[in-house]
Design goal:
heterodimer, A: mainly beta, 7-stranded mixed sheet, B: 113 residues, 6-stranded mixed sheet, 5-stranded antiparallel sheet, 0% helix, globular
């Protein structure tokens, strides 16, 4: 079965600082990978998805970027954080089959101060 | 804009009762439907998925799908205090959507002893 690893669990960063969140996947080859953000008291917003190495699609224009340098590694980055980047960041993956369920990592709670 | 709508609640039921959670979706071409449970501060956890019209049962949980009405529901029988959480409905358009899920805002369920 697929396991999604995310770190760190919590992060406090000042405005204007860079960000790098990493996600790795176990148990599945060639997964589809996703970054979601959940703002406090709100639903999950899809930020990026990837169907393969170096194949990234952005769902919303924003201050963030994503990269997939290896099949089972997905990275979320920012050069300069904004206050509005605060939230709960979730990496998720599927087995790559149409209609496969999404499985989430434990998430990173980011507070930008 | 593809939308998934849920009543935010809170829905409060006594222990042992049936909790009924509802979700509607706007994309008539949606192919797969998921229910996730999210405890406060934690990542979403997959409970059920359903692809075909009708009912699907798994233990105390039953998912119901009516594609003509664009409606999916989750019934929790013999509700327990440990079922208290936010329940997220998610929809996958299938096809070339690459497994992307659109989530509702979630329904807060409280089961009181």
């Amino acid at each position: 079965s697929q396991t999604i690893h995310q770190w760190p669990a919590t992060l406090v960063q000042p405005v204007g600082s860079p960000l790098s969140l990493e996600c790795t996947v176990e148990g599945t080859s060639n997964p589809n990978l996703y970054w979601y953000r959940q703002a406090a008291g709100r639903g999950l917003q899809l930020l990026f998805y990837s169907i393969g190495i170096d194949q990234i699609s952005s769902e919303v224009p924003q201050n963030l970027s994503a990269s997939r340098p290896q099949d089972r590694q997905f990275i979320l980055s920012s050069k300069k954080l904004l206050l509005s980047d605060s939230g709960f960041y979730l990496c998720a993956g599927t087995g790559g089959m149409t209609n496969s369920p999404l499985h989430f990592g434990n998430g990173t709670r980011l507070t930008v101060t | 804009q593809k939308e998934v709508e849920q009543n935010s609640g809170p829905l409060s039921v006594p222990e042992g009762a049936i909790a009924s959670l509802n979700c509607t979706y706007s994309d008539r071409g949606s192919q797969s439907f998921f229910w996730y449970r999210q405890y406060s501060g934690k990542s979403p956890e997959l409970i059920m998925f359903i692809y075909s019209n009708g009912d699907k049962e798994d233990g105390r949980f039953t998912a119901q799908l009516n594609k003509a009405s664009q409606y999916v529901s989750l019934l929790i029988r013999d509700s327990q205090p440990s079922d208290s959480a936010t329940y997220l409905c998610a929809v996958n358009a299938g096809g070339t959507s690459y497994g992307k899920l659109t989530f509702g805002q979630g329904t807060i369920l409280t089961v009181h002893p």
